Amino acid sequence: MLRGLLLGALGLSGSLLAQSWQGQMQGGPEIMVDPNTRRATGLIDGDRRPLWDGVHRLEDGSTVIVRDGVAVPTAPMYEQWERQPEPEAIFERRYCQQLVRKTCGFDDACRASAPCTRARSLLAEVARERSVGVETGGDERGSGAIARCRDALDDPAFAACASLASDAGASRCRALLKRTCGAEGACAGTQACDAARQLQALETQERLTNADPSALSQTGSQCLKAMNNSFFKPCGER
């Protein structure tokens, strides 16, 4: 519900990005635009290289504009990206696995932390309950340990591993947060910064449930689009 209200207020849609968009330039190379970074590359002499800045005309008569190596998204690009499937949320009801991922980090960077240790203990308790015949059900909601994991996901005592938010390669909302809040948090009190923080929190929740936490989630897609939204002006322009 929070996600829907936030995205609705900001005028953002629920599209998803996945595969790179491809096109053919008139008398030139095949070009590709990465959906995550918007970087434009061309297949030149058998090698994929950054596409030079400018207006590039395609065989169908349309154009692609590249600035500082980044393509300005066109309607066909968005149409292709919106058709891609959502990452598989195999951990959606597996609360203890989510808790371990949250506290220990996807890369196990916080494996020695107290929250990670407690989360792993709860996960082990689920296994013990099963061994004595406690029926948990397919979505893992039936045991006491799982109920505690579900509650712990919102408990500040089970703090998220810092690597979840600092991983620029997988957290697409991190750049938006830095843009709106400022590198040193100079604009931390603004509405845009608060909205960016909420988007990153929603992105993290989605990544915790996905089979591949590095896959582009729905909220991650919105953060990429929000970089071109006037509401999310850079901190220094406010």
Protein described:
- This protein has 238 residues and is of the alpha+beta class.
- It has 3 domains: 62 residues, no CATH class; 79 residues, no CATH class; 72 residues, no CATH class.
- The chain contains 9 helices and 7 strands, in the order αβββββββαααααααα.
- The chain has a 4-stranded antiparallel beta sheet. Strands 5-6-7 form a 3-stranded antiparallel beta sheet, with no helix packed on it.
- Strand 2 and strand 3 form a beta hairpin.
- Helix 4 packs antiparallel against helix 5, helix 7 runs antiparallel to helix 8 and helix 8 packs antiparallel against helix 9.
Question: How much β-strand is present in the residues?
Answer: 5-15%
Number of strands: 7
Approximate shape: elongated
Please provide the ordered H/E string of secondary-structure elements: HEEEEEEEHHHHHHHH
**Widest sheet, order of strands:** 1-2-3-4
Number of H/I helices: 9
Give the proportion of residues in helices: 25-40%
Unreliable segments of 5+ consecutive residues: 136-142
Radius of gyration: 21 Å
Count structural domains. 3
Characterize the largest beta sheet: strand count, sense, and whether it forms a barrel: 4 strands, antiparallel
Distance between the termini: 29 Å
